[in-house]
Amino acid sequence: MIKSVIPNAAVKRMPFILTVLAGLFVLTCFPVAKAQQNGAVSPQARWVADIPLEESLVVATDLGFSFDSPSGRIIVLFATTDAPASAIRSYYRAILPPLGWQGSGDVFRRGPEEVAIKQVNVNGLGLWRIALQPAR
Length: 136
Fold this sequence. Notes:
By secondary structure, the chain is an alpha+beta fold. It has a domain at 46-134. The chain is 30% helix and 36% strand. The protein is built from 2 helices and 9 strands; from the N terminus they run αβββββαββββ. It has helices spanning 8-37, 85-95; strands at 46-48, 51-53, 58-59, 65-69, 72-80, 102-104, 107-110, 113-122, 125-134.
């Protein structure tokens, strides 16, 4: 007889654990799937973490950074665009709420995180700063 290396109690809990993991997977995918179904996000959209990038934004890869802090993840990127500021703001005000982000203006919150989308000036160059960080 072959003896199992998995404790009997763990085997009995396996269906419960798999159900919980499947539920978490569905819950994390649901906001994105719902937004895509509503036409808010195209399947070809570019993403940084779980924030879609407006299609005209060109990311300045040398300026951005990301890391995990004790209080949560921090992702900051800078991008340029020829699109008017009103178009960028309108895009994010329309796209973020279907993805579960709540807010107005330039700052949106979801759970323990916030994302801020602001127009900034770096060395005379107009850029868009998109920052995902723990909510304050």
